[in-house]
Amino acid sequence: LGLQITGVFDSEGIGKNFWNRPIESLGELLEVEYDWVVVSSHDFEPKVKELLRLGIPSEKIISPFGDAFNLLEENSD
After folding, report:
1. pLDDT digits (tens, 9 = 90+) for 36-77
2. Are 34 and 60 in contact (CB under 8 A)?
3. Is the CB of residue 47 less than 8 Å from the CB of residue 61?
4. Cα-to-chain-centroid distance, residue 23
5. Would the pTM of this model clear 0.70, i.e. be above it?
6. Where are the strands (E) in the chain, listed by range?
7. Which of 28, 56, 58, 66 could form a cystine bridge with 24, CB 3.0-4.6 A?
8. CA end-to-end span of the chain, whole Å?
């Protein structure tokens, strides 16, 4: 697909590896350049809300779970 993973960020599992990359804290996400933030957790709603609270723009958050887009629309007001 021509995608490159910049990093793996989460509020849990910090220091463990995911796809051979260390999991970094969500706060570290604010320090890197990215095109999109992909939320791939089945428990995506709290993850999306946490990203929005951090100030990640909703248009930069994507998910393979269709309901995430509804959640983003609800929080865009």
Report:
1. 999 888 788 888 899 999 999 988 988 876 555 555 556 555
2. yes
3. no
4. 12
5. yes
6. 8-10, 17-18, 21-25, 37-38, 61-62
7. 28
8. 33
